[in-house]
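In this section we walk through a basic example: taking a raw amino acid sequence and producing a predicted 3D structure, encoded as discrete structure tokens. The instruction is simple. Fold the sequence below.
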Amino acid sequence: QVQLVESGGGLVQAGGSLRLSCAGSGRTFSGYSMGWFRQAPGKEREFVATIRSYDLSSYYADSVKGRFTISRDNANNTIYLQMNSLKTEDTAVYFCAAGIDGLVHRTQEHRYEYWGQGTQVTVSS
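The resulting token sequence is shown next.
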């Protein structure tokens, strides 16, 4: 059974940092783009960042560009999201996801086949 399990969420003050992890099991994610999405209360889930497998190229939502960094450790089937200079508007449940690599970066939910259960990130003012 394929599983993605997020960890590293929590409560942090504005301006602070957190690092999220997502561990995959049940299959190798070589050949899969890995992404992070988030869902704030009362809002739809939105794209945050993605990283391809074959060239490690990454792409970010404008709202997090320059503050967040996505990375992956293929040997350990794990991806990370380093979040710096956090803002209150970053408060959300963060989800990791896996979908087949493509020539275009995967920013849409339907491009992702596997999803984690999410981890809560709360940024206080």
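Looking at the output, two observations stand out. The chain has no helices and eleven strands. The two ends are 40 Å apart (CA to CA). In the next section we compare this with other chains.
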